[in-house]
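pinned: reference chain
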Amino acid sequence: MTTLNKIPNKLVNEKSPYLQQHAYNPVHWFPWGDEAFQKAKTENKPIFLSIGYSTCHWCHVMETESFEDLDVARILNENYISIKVDRELRPDIDNIYMRVCQGMTGSGGWPMSVFMTPEQKPFFAGTYFPKQSAGQYPGFIDIITHFAEAWKENKNQFFEDTAQIEAFLKQSMDKHSEELKQSVIQSAFEELKSQYDPLYGGAGIAPKFPTPHKLFFLLRYYKSASDRTALDMVEHTLLSMYKGGIFDHIGYGFSRYSTDRKWLVPHFEKMLYDNALLAIAYTECYACTKNELYKNIAEKIFTYVLRDLTSSDGAFYSSEDADSEGMEGKYYVWSYKELFKQFNKNKVEILCNYLGVTKEGNFEGANIINLIHTDLETVNQPEIKKAVEEIRSKLYDERLKRIRPFKDTKVLISWNGMMIAALAIGGRVLHRRDYIVAAKKAAGFILGSMTDQKNRLLNGYKNGINSAVGYLDDYAYIIFGFIELYRSTFDTSYLNKALEFNQTLIDNFWDNQQSGFFFYGNDQENLIIRPKEHYDGATPSGNSIAAMNLLQLYEYTGDHNFKVRAEKLINAFGADINSQPTGHIHFLTAFLTNNQNKSQVIFTGRDKNELLKIRQKLDSNFLPFTTCLVYDGNEAAVETNPHLKDYIPEDRVTAYVCENFTCQQPTHNIDAVFTGLQ
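pinned: its structure tokens
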């Protein structure tokens, strides 16, 4: 029996939007903390831990089916201490118990359901469970009843189980340092080719995830090996994703993933991190190919983020839900009848011929607008293009009249770091000064509102309140963002901030025994293990991003210690990387970058306008293995990169090119420099 509970539980004063969503469940939820664990010990009860996030569709389903149900609540309240965790604000907790879930079931996801002792030691884990059992699928009410009875009858058995799981967790932490083989790059490429879908791009059949960092690797592999197949894979994937329903053709932005092979039916939630990384992928592909389509798609992503996921302070919100009015995708889909009422016959024909609309629909009787079977060259014909834009604009206005999905206005440093980097890259490649301004504003918000008195990062922000001290991903991604801002502005204050946060990361997260960065710092809460995440999943791991950061810092400062530490970091996970290349694809991007023949170009001159023009020309090209420095005599630049003091800017712009540890004669022939870097 389900009822609307009017009595709040212990979550009512929490700042997390996800925890707030459960504050009036009849389940007596506790936030993660000493109060819950002490109560479990005092009352001799096991703990039920539920982990999710605010825009998670199946989290909503499980809440409706089970956590709002009085029968379920009664069993939980009588027999368990129930704890809710927002995985976005406590990624350390999520990281550990996700390892357990994946180890026990072979897969993971959210909502995550974990049963454990009062000492935080798990004995059973899974994801979503329906309320009632059906066939071979156990129901939640049967699971919680079973474990409640078993705990009372023989709880010692659970401690034996937890000992085995704890041994598994510790074993999962044993990483073997091993130098990466040069052949691992080719192995990764061959593996990506074997996973590639030649019909619709991407990997596998369904569901399909964008995983832009695989595209980052392929673009660099193409540049390194001159293998056109790699670029074809990238272009086909980017084009197919855009044409599918995973891209919102009405309001722009990408959804989380596609449930089908064609990228047609998305899981409709939109995440900041997906859109940030995809914006980078489309921007880099544009720089590589000069195909205006990729530029336009990147600009549409930025339009969505700056319009719908940006606060008045310039920070970026986390996500938008898949559901509205209790239905997944309701905000985004259109019935044929509804469209027929909106438009005349000519426009309806365009909807049917070019925008994937049918009377039967393609999603539960409704239509997801898409371009899967559309020739984009035909759509770009002036008359059709104008009509399509008129349709899009009208549907966008009509859609605004609907009840919009929930927006999670929580600010996360790691995801903001990604978006700052994306805007900085987009700004310089697409020559959009407004993107760089937006990136700088977000960076200013992070520095002003999400650091503590010790200048440590605070990972989350909501309504003026910060959450815990930042984790590895927060540091890695904000350093990434500041490095890209430096590359787009040559303002040394951003490089200095990157260096400062990088030192904090080393001081508080580095493993001095086995190398690599721990997920949480020395002064943060000790959990049952201290993980070191290295798998490049939905996003690149903090360690792989940190490795690339270290290599970039080496190039921009000349400090060889950064290069040495990057190599130690990569080799710390070398055994796993060698055995599972595509599972560590961003590590391999760093490894490829480190081992590639590289160029460094220093442009000097006193004419700042001329330097700006030259830098813009350079930025238009995809040169992943070239480092560019611009020096106009600014002393701050010398403080960060001491060897610049050897260069004396003249009135004319001079280029100094060094390749593979050999420097060429200085030249005023800038065009020749660009030709040589192609």
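why pinned: The CA atoms of residues 557 and 640 lie 6 Å apart. The mean pLDDT is 92.
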